[in-house]
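Handover notes (outgoing to incoming on-call)

Open items:
1. Cleavage and polyadenylation specificity factor subunit 1: sequence verified, structure written out, both below. Nothing else pending on this one.
2. Nothing else urgent.
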Amino acid sequence: MNELLRLSLIITHTSVPSLRVDPLYRCAALLLPLNGLALLPFFQTQAELDIIDQEQNVTSLAKEAPYSPSFVLDLPVNVDSRIKQVIDIAFLPGFNNPTLAVLYQSEFTTTGRLHEARDTVSLLTITLDVLTRTYPVISHTPSLPHDSQTLSPCHPSIGGVLVTTPNGILQVDQGGGIVGCASNHWFSRVSNVPNVAPPDQPNSEGFDMDNSFVEWIGTEPCLFLPNGSIRTVRIEREGRVVHFGPEVGRVARPERGSVCPVGERILFVGSLDGEAGLARVVRGTAEVQEEESDEEMEDEDDLYGDTTGQTQAKSGAALQPITGFVLADTLPAYGGINAMVFALAKNGDRYAPELIACTGAEYTGGFSLFQKDLPTRIKRKVPAIGGARGVWSIALRRSHAQDLDTVVVSTDLAPSPGISRIAKAAGNEVQILARTPGLTMAAGAFFQQTCVAQITTNSIRLLEPDGAERQLYLDAEGNKPRPKIKAAHVADPFIVVLREDDTFGLFVGDTTKGRVRRKDVSHFGENGTICSSASFFTDHTDLFHIRKPGDAVPTQPGGGSNRRRGGEPSSSKRRASRKSRGGPVAPTTLENIVDADHGTQWLVVLRKNGTFEIWTLPLIGLAFSTDQLQALPDILVDSGQTHTAPRPEGESDIEHVVVAPIGITRPKPHLIVITKSRTLAVYEPVTAPLPTESSNNPTPVRDQLVIQFVKVFSRVLPLDTHDTKRVAGRALVPFKSANMSGVFVTGDHPFWLLRTDTSPLRTHPHAAQYVNSFTPCSIFEKGEYLVHSDEGATIVEWLPDVDIGPEIPCRSYASDDGRVYTSVAYDVSTRHVLAASALRTTFAYYDEDANEIYTPDAAHPNPQIHCSALELITPDTWTTVDGYEFAQNEFINAVESIPLETLSTERGLKDYVVVGTTISRGEDLAVKGATYVFEVVEVVPEPGIKTRQYKLRLLCREDSKGAVTALCGINGYLVSSMGQKIFVRAFDLDEKLTGIAFMDVGVCVTSLRPLKNLLLVGDMLKSVWFVAFQEEPFKLVPLGKDRQQLSVTHANFFFGPQGQLSFAASDDLGVLRMYEYNPHHPDSDSGSRLICSSEFHTHVPHRDVLAISRKVDSASVPDAMDIQSLGVESSLITGLSDGSIASLMPLNESEFSRLQLLQGQLIRNVQHIAGLNPKAHRYVKNDFVSRSLSNGVLDGNLLAAFEELPVAKQVEMTQQIGAEREKILNDLLKLRSPW
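Cleavage and polyadenylation specificity factor subunit 1 structure tokens:
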């Protein structure tokens, strides 16, 4: 079986390794298993480097490295024999030699043995002399709490370390003295450490500090709790007192090592459970008022400027205590995935599959909704506008008013020779202002948005806002007409047209006369107007600067922005010299006066031979030229040579080129290229380095743009599948909406090219099959788009709150109080979502007569326990409309929508919501469980409510002797697990469950998946079982099982090519294994043993796995009989604990062979992160086989790197493996769709 795993929405995984660095960067220490400590000494002085250079037996690589060889310490052997298990390490500041504090267990104990061994943790302080390899002990502090967790070195002005425990915090000074403060009343029950103050509020239960850590902001420690709250810690040196301050903030739960103070004023907090934040530290109440009143402060200058300078300016005065945090910016994230289900979303009148994921943790919980296409909805259809061959929305100024009116120019082929329309909105209808025969090639606002410039096949027309003609300019040479115009672009005050003879013409508007005239193009030289495409772009970023030959510092082009830069007074105004345009000072006309909002304009030209050029405007001069674009290299650099007439021989592979801004708050210009071989490449301009004196590059002989283009995105596009007579060709349409700039690509398989301020470039498919024309349009409301697609001319809009940053568009809905959902199901008949919310409450246990059995100790707090509630949620507003609360000691393990037999429907089956729970009875008694059967019913709505109302109705509850951990349905019966047993039950008379079959399988069932009368069982210890269900007589028959001891969390059926069946199982470490049931295999013992065929390590636990069917690609199989023999294929959608979504897809033999060879080439020839081996990253250690089983699953992330390579490198790799580049790109294209 050959499969490919494709990971998307990859979010960076932040682990918590015990890696510490000395404050003075003298060495680094890595804590290893079995109490080992790896040390890496750093060179500090030039004398140490000179000693290395004089040694003869040292390699050249070792001489270049700024560190000496590392070595490993065995702490019990080399330091102290009392060390049994190291808990944490930390370097201490303020010492002449590297000094390490080691927190370790000197004796093992548990909570049940606290009366025998209670305070078993010790703190050891040692000096690391890496030259003599001696490690003297400075101090030893025994008898610390047995549940001590972390070390945090104190500020040098205080000294010592802070030790955190689940119930309090301790400060151990350099002399071994201990003071501390308890966070709750459990501290005195589990530890006898003296000098620990009780909680600040004796009557309160306090707070839990389990998995908390301390981070120092300047001289003040802050405690980060696992629920996301931040508390200050006060350390009084005179009175030797430690106590907790108030809660000063709340963030998404951070991981230790992800909190980074920037000076004493800025704090970055990373998280895997929600948004990472950049916060400003507020000190004192006066500073809080200053934050609220200072509305003119620029966050960018304050956050990213010289924050250290601000701190040094106030170094003479003592800083006030921290009183809060002001969130300045965030990195959007939704956290880890807990459960998933597919639903049917309604985007306006269109239905689309939607993946609902329960995400987040600890007050950041909620739902995240994923659709493979960018979620849009049709607001209205406007067939009167048409626009099958082009549509343009133009905003025009009203006379004597600041508001803008919107008119739409559209064009169609029929009736021949084409027709163009000018329309505007009249209330809720469309009013056609004028109709003219002929096709429109382009249209745009002109003369400061006072009129419309319309370019037809043979003329330029200036139109009034009401459609009346102001000027008609025929594109002719004297009385002789020029070839027809096939493309054009308008950028006030310039117009460029491209004719059928591949020559372009340049026109400019004259404000003094209010008319259009031809622009002199003699600067382009002889045959210099022959090209493949020509367009304009406007730079608003001040990035495009001109450097003259021999100049060391580039000059800013005229008309640059007047935005204030860091360190520049707000009243300053930067004025650029007109000499930076490459000519004399131009006269003051509309051609060269560009205000601050307009930016600087440039002309982009693509020659027939593939040469890419950028020309200055309004004084024409070549500023950038390269002939390397068609090879799609990683970096495009200006050749620096003068313009020469293009050679007629040679045809370029480039089809479309455009420079357009993409982004939200700070859009950046991007160079977008589409080749005839269906490759999309995007380049971002960056400032080019200044040439050095020793550089071998030729001296430039003309003005140059001080930029170079760096490739940031590359993707292969799908083949066109529709009739070209009915579907317009692919085109790049830059757009700017109310809050975003981007590019829309029309044609077959249309898509959006977007990016946010914190994400890379993304391509999100559009929901239509094809799009003929596109334009942002505010003819009715702002934020709309006018699209002519397979559904006709329509006004569409995005669904609200869409996050385009992830690889799959996402919408997130947080719960009211941030509660976390652990399970989710979808009721198809009512289109409602049922989710299990995880809550925390005080522990309680009742007998059958509802009498409370457990009575808490009055001297200690009541313990907390998990409980659950089942919520009925409407997907229209994502609000809870009904629910069912379970007992305080009962929580939900599984929620499933299962079809069960019933007499209430004609087909004999009906979907019910089945819930499996666990009933906790404390530490001394085994847990119990229960199975609930609910029905979603429609009720009579309240007066005045027109929408349908639904409620949950409990039909049946059945108690069990163990926890019900997994549920599924098989042939109309309910299959549930109870510990190591599986039960099959019938739902009799819609009121009770009757057992008909059972079987013992393992230790604890974690997963149940049905397929007709077959059942796949995953066990916490006994791996995977393959079982058959027989109805006459009723019984469960084991067919095969895996005999290894594996903790399987999910097991699913998987259909490969030709319907080949296999089983995919995920364990608790994130290892994916593929099994086959093959009775003819010699090692299968006639089928009783499942054969493991592949193993693949994802390194992240799988929270939920969904199986979906895939369309079989019949394009390569012309015979109808062969198509039927292909069978069914499936994919597995996996939600991971770090928020990633992975898909496992099947491959046929030829595709797998090609991609496997390509993967080997990529492993050897592509630079990898930190030089790590991706093959070893996916390797799974297995002592039961003689060879690795990792070759059966390919790494989709690694294969995706092939699309980012230059074309020449792609061709070279494919030739080495005996394949064609086109076939490889088609193979990768099939694997792109997530579902």
